[in-house]
Amino acid sequence: MPQSLFEKVWNAHVVEALPGDNALVFVDRVVAHEITTPQGALEIERRYDDRLFDPKRIVAINDHVSPAKDTETAIQAKVLRDWAKRHGIVLYDMGQNGICHVVAPERGYVEPGMTLACGDSHTCTLGAFGAFALGVGSTAQGGAMLAGCLVLQRPKVMRVNVTGRLGGGATAKDLALHVIATLGFKGGTGYVLEYAGEAIAALSMDERMTLCNMAIEAGATTGMCPPDETTFSYLRGREQQPTGDAFERKVDAWRALVADRDATYDAEIAIDVSALRPLVSWGTNPGESVPIDGTVPNDASEGSLAYMGLRPGVALRSLEIDQAFIGSCTNSRLSDLRAAADVLRGRTVSVPTIVTPGSQAVKRAAEREGLHDVFQDAGALWTHSSCGPCLGMSMGVLAPGARCVSSTNRNFPGRMGAGGRVHLASPAVVAASAVLGRLGSPDELDAAAAPAVTA
Amino acid sequence: MIVEGAVLPIDRANVDTDQIIPAHYLTGIETTGLGKHLFIGMTGGAELLAAHPHASIVVSRENFGCGSSREHAAWSLADRGFRAVVAPSFARIFFENAYNNGIAPVIVPAEEIDALLRSATLRIDLEREELVRDDGASVAFTLDPLRKQFLLSGGYMAFLASKIDAVRAWEAAR
Lengths: 455, 174
Ligand code: SF4
Hints:
The structure holds two protein chains of two kinds. By secondary structure, chain A is α/β, with parallel strands linked by helices. In chain A, 32% of the residues lie in helices and 18% in strands. Chain A has two domains: 5-270, Aconitase, domain 3; 282-449, 2-Layer Sandwich (Aconitase, domain 3), CATH 3.30.499.10. Chain B has eight helices and seven strands. Helices cover 33% and strands 19% of the residues of chain B. In chain B, strand 2, helix 3 (72-79) and strand 3 form a beta-alpha-beta unit. Chain B has helices at residues 17-20, 45-51, 72-79, 92-100, 113-118, 147-153, 156-161, 164-173; strands at 2-9, 55-59, 84-87, 104-107, 121-125, 130-133, 138-140. Chain B is globular. Chain B is an alpha/beta fold.
């Protein structure tokens, strides 16, 4: 029987079929962070003799609030640190850490065909490698640490065939927002989004991670991209990957991880990106997005309008902003920082702007290229890596009513601070908006900078 | 097992987990004591809870529990004594978390929700998979046959612990 990419990975990991379309699914890798891991780890310590299925399959990362901001978050980090040490689990901590969805791939912990679970909804990011990577609750993550598997309802599979070439300032972020706007905020619920097509093949790994990162924002279980030469060359030489022949043998096995030609899907959609232009969200979920030169739609929901302080017909470009943020597991990798720096080079931001690299490794690489100078010369705050302002938990919290343009993935009410208003966009659009002091795109900057013609 | 009690009517769709409990309150390491933060992130949430102090069943619209995977959403509901959430659809991770914490995620057709929001109380029979409104009308629903056992007899972790030997054998033969 011809199989989709998802089916190949799923079938290779089913330990046992369970009642009701459920299965016991083996988990190759658990990624553990300090906010959602301690609860499951403590349960295992108290009730199951502190036994773990296989500590070598776990990688721990202090990421959400690192360094700690108060006693409580210091305790979270310490619990993760002590637990990792006790079990011989590799831990990335202050100095070498960053957002788990950035650190795990850059160190080579994620590979094609793998199953991976983490107590974080944006674990879907790692589907970019052709892995089945999904966010779970703390109890489910604990179960995976205790028994090496998850109880999962078999998801349906939707093929998302993407044709054309990105251009006209559109990025993988815009594609991600477009997919959600097309499917609807919950249109992917119950599905794995299996991406395919020439436009996906042309994406870098950074871009594929940005795309898969937002699969959860359409409600999907996860996203997956077919592994190819781009994937293999990204992984070649990574810290956790073998070298030489051993690596090439893995590559040979990974080459089989493509959808069979006649594979059938529960649903299929087609997207042509040729005409795609930069998008920005206007509402309170990522599906409520329009082109940056568009207006708030006439059929906008009242709740979203009230929260965002908007009326139908308002031009997005007319909206003044109070803050800008470039960072998060969606858009904080080196290529994202380069895109933002290209816009900010030689310009000055006109609103408080925070730039937070996704990992300390990204930070070092950016600084070797001098990007930190570009940001700081432009007047932006260049920080250490962390989740930071993304979830309104530590630094950069918005005041009620404050409007922020952000390269993150969630514009929910209160996400970046109670009453704060978030507009999602690509790093380039965030950077341009930071300069303009209102929502806007990079192509407006040259026009704005041109000397006024006087009579 | 019967869940019976007052309804907390949340007449909106897409109640995300940031609204159920904002990230600001995720700084603990325990699963208890989170009820005091429940629905603080939802506009009018605190007032709604105050108006229904004894509610133990949430009724809401589509896509309940979307967004962040934080199990704190289920823990804060359980801590306030909630035993069921009735909605036309749930986000996957919340759906799993609810089952793992003794909260029944009850899926009913969208057209039933208006009447359920008006029902001051509900009586939910988890074994027979039927709920009854305060006017006597009943609605059938289906629970996940496996996870239903986690509700009735407790223990996702216990279930997985019972599988360890089988998983090791599978891994060895892989
Ligand atoms: S950057 Fe934001 S979305 Fe990503 S893991 Fe951190 S808090 Fe979650």
